[in-house]
Design brief:
- With about 160 residues, this protein is α+β, with helices and mostly antiparallel strands.
- Helices cover about 20% and strands about 30% of the residues.
- The chain is built from four helices and ten strands, in the order αββαβββββαβββα.
- The protein is globular, with a radius of gyration of 18 Å.
- The protein starts with a helix and ends with a helix.
């Protein structure tokens, strides 16, 4: 019994520190990130890497976890489409074009029209991003890295003009 409490005394703080600093596995619900996550039949579990957003910059195309700007109790997982200074052609936002303000990003779900994202609530503070989705860890048939890419149709306007 003494060994159990000793293991508990050391194990719990180490586990909490790992989850807080390195990352954790989370279930992805909903259709907003299809086809990248949650294909037609099934639910994906992804590794959310906290280290990646704490010590490295978020890039266009990254799939990130964030606190919803509308409901702080809700967590979202979306793709970063634009960064500060980018001009975004919106889908259904109140204006057809938005310049992303400093300290913010524009996030969207891959399944256009079926996503609660920046087209609903506008640019999102970078401070709301908690982790980057780096790998699908369950089910085993879907083991893979989460690809960081930006569809050409969603690239910020200045990037499309440079091509």
């Amino acid at each position: 019994m003494k060994l159990f409490f000793k293991a508990l005394l050391f194990g719990v703080p180490i586990g909490i520190t790992f989850v807080d600093v390195v990352g954790y596995v989370a279930r992805v619900d909903g259709v907003s990130m299809q086809p990248a996550l949650n294909p037609a039949s099934g639910t994906d579990y992804v590794f959310l890497n906290r280290w990646a957003v704490r010590f490295y910059d978020v890039s266009r195309g990254d799939v990130v976890a964030l606190i919803s700007p509308k409901d702080p109790d809700q967590k979202l997982i979306k793709r970063v489409v634009g960064l500060e200074g980018d001009i975004i052609n919106t889908h259904s936002y109140k204006t057809p074009f938005v310049r992303v303000p400093e300290g913010h990003c524009w996030i969207e779900g891959d399944h256009t029209g079926h996503s609660m994202d920046s087209n609903l609530f506008g640019p999102v503070s970078l401070g709301l991003i908690t982790a980057k989705a780096t790998a699908i860890v369950w089910p085993p048939s879907r083991w893979q890295e989460v690809e960081s890419f930006l569809p050409a149709s969603r690239a910020p306007i200045q990037m499309r003009l440079e091509e």
